[in-house]
Each structure stands twice: as C-alpha cells, then as structure tokens.
Description:
Rossmann fold; 5 strands; five-stranded parallel sheet; alpha/beta; 20% strand; 5 helices; globular
Amino acid sequence: MNARPDDPLSSPVRIFLVVVDDSPELSVALAYACRRARHSGGRIAMLQVIEPSEFRHWTAVEELIREERRTEAEQHLLKLARRVIELTGTLPVLYIKEGDRRDQLVRLMAEDPSISILILAASTAPEGPGPLISYLTGPGLAKLRIPLTVVPGNLTAEQIDAIT
Length: 164
C-alpha cells in the first residue's frame, strides 16, 4: 500500500525534546516547544532526570529517597503533560531517567532517533545560561546529533507567539 503525500504516517513526526527541571525558564522552553510543535505537526517529549542521592549510608533509606524523588518526578511530568495537551492537543512522550543530567540527555538523544530538536531556555541570571547549555555549547557540542535551540529565558508569551 502506498502512502499519500498528505498522510501524516508517510513522514516522520518532528519530536521537540525539553529537559524538565525546577528552573523558572522551563516554562519558556516548554511554551516555545509547544508552539513550534503545534505549527509543524510535531510532538513534545520531556525528559526529567533524577540525580543520585548523596545519602549512601543505609540502603533502605537511600531506596526510600529514590522512590520519593521518582514519585515527585512523575507528578511534575504529569502536571506539565496536561499543559502540553492544552497547548498542542497531543500527548507528550515522557522520559524519567536516573543519573547525571547531561549524561542521561546525551544517552537519550543517541538512543532515540525520533528526537529531532532539543529546546532549552537560557537562564537570565548573571552566572550564565545554565550548566546544561554551557556544556552543550562547549565540550558537549560534539555529542549532539540534532539541532539545539536555545531560547532566551525571559521571553513573554507574546514574544514567543511572534517568533514561532
């Protein structure tokens, strides 16, 4: 059976990956990604990485902390997923990984060929754009196989609308 040119299954869907954290600029990155996905028929993917616990004395306590962090990550992603559905009309792809944030991000991008674009929002703090952006625009640049879009973290909804 031949696919029609207007058939959405005939071409790959563009996946916009947003890394989830607790930064204020996350909402800007997500809004920008949702707007781009909606305009291009794409889809949102969100990655939240649970950093390892510093508490290593008792296995039972460490496991409890790990479970609590996973539950918090799931709840956070579900809240953001509702927002993505409101903005795009599609379900996002959700990833929860454990380990170092940049290692897990690089690994996910290498493992999932459906991810098309990484979207991050830069911090407006005087310290710089943030550790992940600094890494990916410096030593980690060679590890990228997809375009990286860095959005200014202080964009308003109106500004995002104007540029998407």
